[in-house]
Amino acid sequence: MTRKPLRLLLSALLVAGAAAAAALVGSASGSAGASGIAASPTTVQTPNGTIDTKNCVKYAGVESSGSKNSLDPAQQPSSQNSLNVNATYDRLTTEDDNWKVLPDLATSWKSNASGTVWTFNLRKGVTFSDGKPFTSKDVVWTFQRVIDPKTGSEGAPQMSFLTKQGIQAAGPYAVKFITKKPVAELPLLITNKNTFITEAGTPTATLRTKGAGTGPFIPVGFSPNKQVQTFVRNPHYWRPGLPKASCLQLYVIQEANSMLAALQTGQVDFSQQVDYSVVPVLQKDSKVKLLTTGPSTSMTMPMWVDTTPFKDVRVRQALKKVIDRKQMVNTVLHGFGVIGDDNPVPPTSPDAWRHTVPGPDVEGAKSLLAAAGYSSSNPLKVDLYTADVIPAIVNMTQLFKEQAAKAGIQVNVISGPASEYWDNVWLKHPFEISAWSARPAGLALSIAYLQNAPYPETHWKVPAYDALIKKANTTVNSAARRKVYQQAEKMLTLQGGEIIPMFQRVVAAQRSTCTGYTPSIQFVQFDLTHLACK
């Protein structure tokens, strides 16, 4: 089949998007329900009085965590949680898009000669939003809580080199991380989405609904299923003159045309990401500015490697071989992406095991399927579960279905509501879609693929793979460490259960009257401190 059916679909989306925008021209900016999303409350009661929300900066995310939405940094099933957390807390360190570690609550850090003791010096004069001083006690408590199995944090397996005893205060404004073996990348590895610093001793229930952070904003009346979450400026924030916004409101808009309309009418000021199908419309709109990242979110189709038919590596390899990745990037992402190689490190990265990914090999796929016992009279049939949880991912599955059909594979795409996907579908079916924020190699190769991974979406449990990641974490020489990472990547590409056809270049948006937003390649990292609108 040709790409015509998908192009027709995308054209239809463009027309629908333009029509939706046209229908809204002339409506009042920020009018309730104009784009089909929840209206913002006009006032919000805070401990310091009532605020008028018309002065709030309005930011729309694209992912919903459903009932799992919370303010607890230790649990972040989607970027909806991450937005809340970035607004409320700070980490010891942050990082740029080149994985350079930068100061945050820690001002400096260094290791001993062997790389087994890392000392972080903490920023003085910082207070939590309730006025309590920030000290080393809070850092120790935070990290011990994240790695505690009882917490169930997805960050724990990524920091398996840490022990409770090895996280120690070195006075009120210094912390030591002591490891049994060298961990050369420790500052990078502990700068993950779960290590935002929380006030020592805060109960989990409080962290989930009230928060207790040093971050730029304070949540007001937070409730997991609330349609609009409101945050007000933290008067104790340690960065002078920040945040610029007196208050912040967070939305979730998962439907492409609703996001388009909300941006064009001014119901929201910033969008975490716009659907690629509406980019041409927004490029012509002088009231909206588009912001693009480098290779970012991976678009994936995980297969359970312990379940028929995917437990046969020949089937997994055949499903990978049928993909025309270049066509996917150009058609589904309108060119805003890079080809993937079925492991979480983009081929454009210096850490990639190879930088050129083979094109589609339909005949090779047919040969593998024949060897696995499939034929025209006994075709491979698979159900693929999907939902509009991130822009373009449903279109990706539809094009995959077309491409797989060239090898005689019958893919039944089952699409459901985006609002229910992460709670009721993901991790519950042997072939489905997923998406992962960009991470440095050590973290990207750990979060879903170790035997004790918190999100084992491919059921990949291979001791030899775990041994490679452990070896990489304790290899001091950077060139040698990269080679170990590349071995792990190659194993996933050739044998693993993750199909990763491409990585998105995220296209975010802001109203032309607004400033201060630079989207990160990490879909879970946000600097909300400089957001401002006229």
Short description:
This protein has 15 helices and 21 strands. The protein is of the alpha+beta class and 534 residues long.
Which helices and strands, and how do they pair?
Elements: H1 4-24, E1 43-46, E2 49-52, E3 57-61, H2 79-88, E4 93-95, E5 101-103, E6 106-111, E7 117-122, H3 136-147, E8 167-169, E9 174-178, H4 186-189, H5 204-209, E10 217-220, E11 229-233, E12 247-252, H6 256-265, E13 270-271, H7 279-283, E14 288-302, H8 313-321, H9 325-332, E15 337-339, H10 362-371, E16 381-386, H11 393-405, E17 410-415, H12 418-424, E18 434-436, H13 441-444, H14 463-473, H15 478-495, E19 498-511, E20 514-515, E21 532-533
Parallel strand pairs: 3-12, 3-13, 16-17
Antiparallel strand pairs: 1-2, 4-5, 6-7, 7-9, 8-9, 10-11, 11-12, 13-19, 14-18, 14-19, 15-19, 20-21
What can you see in these coordinates?
Strands 3, 10, 11, 12, 13, 14, 15, 18 and 19 form a nine-stranded mixed β-sheet that branches. Strands 6-7-9-8 form a four-stranded antiparallel β-sheet, with helices on one face. With 534 residues, it is α+β, with helices and mostly antiparallel strands. The chain folds into three domains: 181 residues, Periplasmic binding protein-like II (D-Maltodextrin-Binding Protein, domain 2), CATH 3.40.190.10; 97 residues, Dipeptide-binding Protein, domain 1 (Alpha-Beta Complex); 212 residues, Dipeptide-binding Protein, Domain 3 (Dipeptide-binding Protein, domain 3), CATH 3.10.105. It is globular and about 70 Å long. It has 15 helices and 21 strands. The N terminus is likely disordered.
